[in-house]
């Protein structure tokens, strides 16, 4: 591949040791984030999105076991790093924006205090840190940033709080920003404001973004590449146009069909995907999606499919794609 | 159509500072209006969608209907009976007729109780212990499509979609005529969202209940509601039949909201009406039309005169001096 990747996950396997045995939360996950691009991750809850993020930033629960694979960030494997080395990367080279800014901001400290506190690594004066915070707030579009630094989180609206969280995450000019459903709590007009702001900042700062969302519309508008996850596996990944215009995996197709935004005629009975996500502690023998797939063939319940490349940058993990390469 | 629920000029105010502090600071009116002159009607068997960003007063409105907050002015009539000022013994009975689905599905279920006891709780609270509760619980579980085995589980053992189903079952326990669903699909994936909405639709068809849906997901509103209202800053700025509202929005905020909705198509060309600025603070209500600081079509009279309700047709009304799409 010609493009350079800021992050490259390959063959990552993560399990959780539970009473019922090993819960195989991630299986052979491959993902790459090219420098300066926005990669979207979609999938139902429980598909492994959070486990993947936690694996990247090294915050997996104590019962997690990484059995194999690598997470190469800026040329070195994060899984081989010590806790100390990881701490130097988190917050400076990789930073994160969470779903609910009210929870990620400290309610009893002013925004200014928090923004200056997180620059504890930098050997510059407090006034310089303050100036940098003001500049950052300005860039995310907080009006009158200088006086707003003295305000507390509850004095800002939801959209502004999320922008402050973004400002704090980008303050250290990270190479990778992980945004975990940052617009879920906002209305449509603010959602659009935030995603445009993210795009602009990404352009001007040249960072890459890993963007997790349920909202397919936001993914389509913001992202360059999309990764579709199901039951702990990456079932399809490709450019945003591959995924939305030429979906190859039956799960991706179903997911797109289910989005009420794509249904032109109003209807009271919305499409669903019948069935349940398989038990990750007791995996089916064949394809992970076979039970719920309406295009299943004999081999699907017997053999787990391997990942096949359909075209440049477009991969899927499905027997059908391997059988009919022109799909 | 006979209205089942009728709200008239409803106003809910919250104290913003203590009486002493108000006296010292010379604040004559130490209150904020969370809901302001809201009138709406929900007919029998009808689904009404209430849309607006967080903080616009949707949830406060819903809570005032079931008597969890006390409105200062206006009336709420259910089937002709006034609810405001109802003695608490009667209010308790009334809450049996109105089923409520709260925002956070897992958070609204007590973590220490089994699903079976959670579902039996409404009957116990309302003194209906005479009947066979075990059978009632099974009936409810079946109604929302959950296996009987779920009865012995605890809330943390449920997925988001399953917890929603339990929420629906609890709301339905006492055969209500009205269901208030506060963000029934927030945080759910599109396929699970479809399941919950289909379930509500099926139950509505079978039981003839009315539903008040509170959400900021416009795609959901478009498909499942008969009529909708847009809330901004504690007021309903426009309401009418859902199809008319989507085809011919009159209020600029409605227009902005509808055009902001991202399309799940990376090549979609969206003619967006982008809003400038921030949602003002409730403590600092703008004079004139509350939307004017963000409105792209603002004119002089918007800044000084508060717009009254204009009735466009029998059931379509808006609050704006310079409406769009009105000849």
Give the SSE layout:
The complex is a heterodimer of chains A (327) and B (327).
Chain A (H helix, E strand, L loop, with lengths): L4 E14 L2 E14 L3 E5 L6 H9 L6 E10 L2 E2 L5 H7 L4 E4 L3 H4 L6 H7 L8 H14 L5 H4 L9 H13 L5 E5 L7 H18 L2 E5 L3 H7 L2 E6 L2 E7 H6 L4 H9 L49 E4 L2 E3 L2 H5 L4
Helix pairs in contact in A: 5-7, 7-8
Chain B lengths: L2 E13 L3 H6 L6 E13 L3 E5 L6 H8 L7 E6 L2 E2 L5 H10 E4 L13 H11 L7 H11 L16 H13 L5 E5 L7 H18 L2 E6 L2 H7 L2 E6 L2 E7 H6 L4 H9 L39 H5 L5 E4 L2 E3 L9
Parallel strand pairs in B: 3-8, 3-9, 6-7, 7-8
Antiparallel strand pairs in B: 1-2, 1-4, 4-5, 9-10, 10-12, 11-12
Tell me what you see in this structure.
The complex is a heterodimer of chains A (327) and B (327). Chain A has 327 residues and is of the alpha/beta class. Chain A contains twelve helices and twelve strands. Chain B is α/β, with parallel strands linked by helices and 327 residues long. Chain B has one domain (3-318): Rossmann fold (3-Layer(aba) Sandwich). In chain B, the strands form two sheets. Chain B has an eight-stranded mixed β-sheet, sandwiched between helices. In chain B, strands 2-1-4-5 form a four-stranded antiparallel β-sheet, covered by helices on one side. In chain B, strand 9 and strand 10 form a beta hairpin. In chain B, helix 6 (160-172) packs parallel to helix 7 (190-207). The radius of gyration of chain B is 21 Å and the shape is globular. Chains A and B meet through helix 7, helix 8, helix 9, helix 10 and helix 11 of A and helix 7, helix 8 and helix 10 of B.
Instruction: Please give the radius of gyration of chain A in angstroms.
Output: 21 Å
CATH class of the largest domain in chain A: Alpha Beta
Please, what is the average pLDDT of chain A? 90
Q: What level of helicity do the residues of chain A show? A: 25-40%
* Main interface by residue count: A-B, 51 and 48 residues
The quaternary state of the protein chains shown equals: heterodimer
* CATH fold-type name of the largest domain in chain A: Rossmann fold
The named CATH superfamily of the largest domain in chain A: P-loop containing nucleotide triphosphate hydrolases
| Helix share, percent of chain B | 25-40%
Terminus-to-terminus distance of chain A: 23 Å
Please outline the major beta sheet of chain A: 8 strands, mixed
Proportion of residues in extended strands of chain A: 15-25%
CATH C-level label of chain B: Alpha Beta
Structural class designation of chain B: alpha/beta
* Mean of residue pLDDT values of chain B: 88
Major sheet of chain B: size, sense and barrel closure?
A: 8 strands, mixed
- Write down the Rg of chain B: 21 Å
Shape of chain B: globular
Low-confidence stretches of chain A: none
Count of helix runs of chain A: 12
Note the run of SSEs of chain B as H and E.
EHEEHEEHEHHHEHEHEEHHHEE
């Amino acid at each position: 591949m010609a493009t350079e990747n800021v992050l490259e996950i390959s063959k990552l396997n993560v399990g959780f040791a539970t009473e019922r045995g090993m819960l195989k939360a991630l299986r052979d996950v491959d993902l790459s984030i090219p420098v300066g691009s926005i990669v979207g991750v979609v999938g139902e809850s429980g598909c492994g999105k959070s486990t993947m993020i936690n694996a990247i930033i090294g915050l997996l629960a104590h019962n997690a076991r990484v059995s194999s694979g690598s997470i190469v960030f800026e040329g070195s494997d994060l899984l081989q790093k010590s806790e100390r080395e990881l701490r130097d990367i988190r917050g400076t080279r990789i930073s994160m924006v969470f779903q609910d800014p009210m929870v990620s901001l400290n309610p009893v400290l002013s925004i200014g205090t928090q923004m200056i506190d997180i620059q504890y690594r930098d050997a510059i004066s407090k006034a310089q840190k303050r100036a940098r915070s003001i500049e950052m707030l300005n860039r995310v579009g907080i009006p009158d940033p200088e006086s707003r630094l003295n305000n507390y989180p509850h004095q800002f609206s939801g959209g502004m709080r999320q922008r402050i969280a973004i400002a704090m995450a980008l303050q250290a000019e990270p190479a990778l920003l992980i945004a975990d459903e940052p617009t879920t709590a906002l209305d449509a007009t603010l959602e659009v404001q935030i995603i445009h702001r993210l795009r602009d900042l990404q352009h001007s700062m040249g960072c890459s973004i890993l963007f997790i969302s349920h909202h397919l519309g936001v993914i389509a508008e913001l992202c360059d590449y999309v990764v579709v996850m199901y039951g702990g596996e990456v079932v399809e990944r490709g450019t945003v146009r591959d995924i939305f215009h030429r979906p190859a995996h039956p799960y991706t197709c179903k997911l797109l069909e289910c989005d009420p935004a794509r249904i032109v005629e109003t209807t009271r009975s919305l499409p669903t995907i019948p069935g349940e996500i398989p038990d990750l502690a007791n995996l089916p023998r064949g394809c992970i999606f076979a039970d719920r797939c309406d295009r299943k063939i004999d081999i699907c319940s017997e053999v787990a499919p391997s990942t096949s490349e359909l075209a440049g940058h477009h991969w899927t993990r499905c027997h059908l794609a391997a059988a009919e390469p022109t799909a | 159509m006979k209205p089942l629920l009728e709200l008239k000029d409803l106003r809910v105010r919250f104290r913003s500072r203590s009486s002493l502090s108000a006296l010292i600071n010379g604040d004559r009116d130490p209150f904020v209006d969370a809901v302001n002159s809201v009138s709406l009607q929900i007919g029998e068997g009808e689904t009404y969608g209430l849309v607006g960003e967080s903080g616009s007063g949707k949830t406060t409105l819903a809570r005032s209907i079931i008597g969890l907050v006390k409105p200062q002015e206006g009336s709420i009539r259910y089937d002709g009976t006034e609810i405001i000022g109802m003695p608490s013994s009667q209010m308790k009975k009334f809450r049996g007729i109105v089923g409520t689905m709260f925002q956070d599905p897992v958070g609204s279920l007590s973590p220490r109780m089994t699903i079976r006891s959670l579902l039996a709780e409404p009957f116990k609270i309302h003194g209906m212990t005479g009947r066979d509760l075990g059978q009632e619980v099974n009936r409810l579980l079946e109604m929302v499509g959950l296996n009987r085995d779920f009865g012995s589980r605890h809330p943390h053992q449920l997925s988001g979609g399953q917890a929603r189903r339990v929420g629906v079952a609890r709301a339905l326990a006492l055969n209500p005529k009205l269901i208030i669903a506060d963000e029934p699909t927030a945080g759910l994936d599109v396929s699970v969202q479809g399941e919950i909405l289909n379930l509500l639709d099926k139950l509505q068809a079978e039981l003839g209940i009315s539903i008040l849906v509170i959400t900021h997901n416009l795609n959901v509103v478009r498909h499942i509601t008969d009529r909708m209202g847009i809330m901004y800053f504690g007021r309903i700025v426009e309401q009418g039949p859902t199809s008319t509202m989507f085809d011919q929005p009159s209020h600029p905020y409605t227009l902005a909201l509808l055009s902001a909705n991202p399309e799940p198509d990376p090549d979609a060309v969206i003619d967006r009406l982008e809003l400038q600025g921030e949602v003002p603070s409730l403590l600092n209500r703008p004079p004139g039309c509350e939307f004017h600081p963000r409105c792209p079509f603002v004119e002089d009279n918007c800044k000084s005169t508060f717009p009254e309700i204009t009735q466009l047709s029998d059931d379509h009304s808006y609050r704006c001096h310079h409406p769009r799409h009105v000849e």
